[in-house]
Give the backbone structure.
Amino acid sequence: MQGRLRLAVEVWSDFTGDLDLPVTDTSHLSLARLAGRATLRTALKPGAWSSEVITAGTSQLEVQTRVLCSPGSDREHCATQCDRAVGSGGHWRCLEDGSAVCKDGWQGTHCDRPVCLSGCSPTTGYCRVPGECLCKVGYHGELCDQCVPLPGCRNGFCRRSFECRCKDGWTGLFCDKRTCNRLINAVLTLSYLH
């Protein structure tokens, strides 16, 4: 990362020549501004010290700089774009350009939503970790795409959870009663009488 740092410098000069004395009384000091402006054009690599000498007239000033990255940012580039992913459980990584991308198996703005097993029903399934498919109440199957019929349903099926749709020839709440019992009894009775 190339960085630029603007630095305004004021230099205090001690004209008494006694530089070893502690400065407690500044009345004898004069304020001299470093003539000119300087812009540091140093490669600011996080953690490393960089040194540059600024010269103006007969004065020189050595400036040392070091960049420290803020918590949660990419330690190699101090990319601020990666700060948005702080608190996501570490399911992200920073690219060289400083942008944040989710690690494999994670999605969402903050990389906090796992990617479920391929084919897992988005309405009746969910996951807590990448690659799994957990079923909501009333659904089952590897992809949570099969409904659970009403408990006690005998000769029926479901299209929604806890439903009992009777197959042909059956009726009742649990599809446990034949619809043609009287007709069968009448046919049996007639055939017995003849």
